[in-house]
Amino acid sequence: MAAGGLLSTVPKPGFFHLDLFIKDTKDVTPWYDDLKGRMEREKGPMENAMANLLSVFAFRIERGQGEARKLLEKLTEKDKNNLNAIANKQFIYGQLMRAKDEMLCRDRLQELLSDESDAATARNARCFAEQAYALTFDVRDDSKDMVSKVRQAISLLETALSLVCNSDALTEEECLVWKYYLSVCYWRFDQVRNDRQDKTPLTEDDRKEGLLKAQRLLIEVTKMNPSWKHGRSYIARAWALLGALENKCRETFKRYTSPSYIQEEIPRAEGLQFGCFLKALEINPNDSEIYRRFGRSYMRVNMFNEARRMLNKSIEIMPDCRSNWFAYYDRSQVSMLEYDQKRKEAPGPAASPSKELLQGAKQDAVASCKGVLTPFNIYHVGKVCHRLAVHPVTGNVENMDELGDALDNFTMALQLEDGFANPRIHAARGQSLQAAGEHEKAAESYKRAFEKDDATFTRNLAGVLRNLLELYRSDHREHYIAELAFWINEGYKKYRYPNIKRALQGSVCKFGSQMIQVCQYLIDHDKSVLAGFCLECFERHNDLRCRSTAETMRRRLQEVDDERASGADDMSSISTQFRSNVHVNLPVTVEKPRHGQEFQYDFFVSHSSKDADWVDYALLPALEGDLRFKGCVADRDFMPGKSVFDNIIYSIENSYKTLLILTPNFVTSEWCKYETEQALMESLKSKSGRVIPIMLHVCDVPRSVRTITYLDVSRDAIGSYDWLKLKKALEETPPTEKK
User: Where do the TPR repeat units fall (predicted)?
Assistant: First the structure.
């Protein structure tokens, strides 16, 4: 199977134990309103699933427990044996401390689940199908666990169908409705897997099984009896989804032949994917969802006028942005893509099309956010605002208000559930900060994007380097050279050769003399291979002086390699000839700590000197430059003339938290052992958790800190979720009285 797998034939009824996204959502009112609207429009076998889910939404609304109870009591009056409704009532009665009613529900469930009749089998199957509907309601592609949720929904529906495949306990129409929702799950499973930010690219075979299975299921649904009272609605939607699948299969598979059934049913002149949509509208011309899918299909092939016409019709049928927010989002996308096309067709490099299209895109994007707030549609508002603010060719800021709106929206998107883990949002924020001239913050945003992006996308590392080089060019603080060298090394570990050159090329082209200094720093610190990759990028540099200097350095590197091959191992000559005298002094970027009433520093970093690069150029810029905590590190903040022991004790006592950077070097360092002992003593005295271990490289955790939960970043550079956890730990309210 492409996903899923059969489950036990006896369900665990109820929705409250399911991993629904609303558990982490502060306000479920938009979803409640949306589902209530759907229940008025969509009738059929999934009505009970909607009613059960609506009760869960009502329960999550402030003072909504009573309404949730009434919804379920009404449902069990209509269907007294609905397993999910009884289980949901049992949960709510327990919350309302109605023990007698809770026990009655429990006993009724036990009685129904012990039944082995055909009617009981059908009841169990409906329970599975309803739970699948709940899991995939309003799937958000950016959610970190949607893949597992959709996979679970597929398992539930396949189990439901397997229970009744040879039974007369269910009507054929109800089974076909389940097959329709199963096909939707396979469609969404492909979508959420392909859109994941931390993915490796999916192969054609990875995607083919699920998409073709969805296609076969939909063909079955189109053969449903149209005289059934809900038949035309499901048949029309099946044809619409077949049209979308035709489009996706043609884009995805090198060798794809449309099923003979579709070829026979759809006139060739219309094109199969568009013909499927036209057939759907012929069957049901009043379904806003069909028009939306049709418009999206036109958008994918840049037929913008046709796409807008279909989306306008979808919004005309259902203007409420809470129920039809996706149509507003799609229409905004159409306007933005059309603007991009006109920009490419502009007569001259400095010319740009009217921004009227972007104004319309912003209105629709804001409307979609009024419907539902998710990271990806707020991020979309930010993208539109950025384009309104910045000239598309020169990059000059034309409207600071729009640029401010862009930054506000990107920040809001990062603060929502799963937003901080999305590299696209960090990268877009970095682009806007760069346009605003805030290069330090831009570099940090691009770092977060680089840390979470896949190993084929080098543009975010290029953003890190470009903004660090801008900072160095403006104030010549030498530590930026060392920081650049660190991130080039991180990029090489992630991208390898020759991909790393794609990230370096733009920086070399624009910042030639500064990159020569970076190359020399790499040579001085035994990174001659990386220096060689950088120097290769100078081969076609416009500046003759930079090009000749790079050529000389490359030639000397080759001579040194030849000397090493013959037994010599001396880099002193090249280091002496070109040494840039880089002396790294870390800047103090934060003047006042967040916990300044009681502490001089927010954190002290205990680490081995051999791990200083990561501390200086990854940890400190993130915590100080981006998150604005005030840190203390030995090389920068220890008081000259004081003994090292006194400096350590003073720094730990006057820091709210101590970060222990766990590595094999840390474990063998006597200074680190002493700092750990002092930090634990201070934590014990204050009776609060003052120590945060961070596992940078796998090592034996010291016995004294094994009982403390640590952040594990040993698989890669520290990731977005770990920065967020660290931020929360450092923001916790300190003890009211320091002891």
Answer: 288-321
The C-alpha atoms of residue 6 and residue 128 are separated, in whole angstroms, by 11
- Helix 499-510 to helix 459-475 angle, to the nearest 10 degrees? 30
Q: Where are the domains of the chain?
A: 21-199, 477-585, 601-731
pTM: 0.81
- If residue 605 lies in a helix (H) or strand (E), which one and from where to where? strand 601-606
Strand order from edge to edge, sheet including 655-662: 631-632, 601-606, 655-662, 691-695, 711-712
- The tokens describing 258, both together, are 């449309």
CA–CA dist 504, 206 (Å, integer): 33
Rounded to whole angstroms, the Cα distance separating 729 from 723 reads 10
The DSSP secondary-structure symbol of 419 reads G
- Give CA torsion, residues 398, 401, 405, 410, to 10 deg: 50
Mean pLDDT of the chain: 86
Q: Which CATH superfamily is domain 601-731 in?
A: Toll/interleukin-1 receptor homology (TIR) domain (3.40.50.10140)
pLDDT of residue 438: 94
Phi-psi domain of 496 (left: phi exceeds 0; alpha: psi -120 through 50; beta: other): left
Q: What are 272-320's pLDDT values in tens digits?
A: 889 999 999 999 999 999 999 999 999 999 999 999 999 999 999 999 8
Q: State pLDDT tens for residues 673-729.
A: 999 999 998 888 876 788 999 998 889 999 888 888 888 887 655 555 578 788 888
- Give the mean pLDDT of 134-152: 72
Q: How far is CA 492 from CA 332, 456, 485, 696, 738, in A?
A: 38, 12, 11, 18, 45
Token readout for 113 is: 């689940």
| CA distances (Å), origin 361, targets 167, 325, 337, 354 | 51, 13, 10, 13
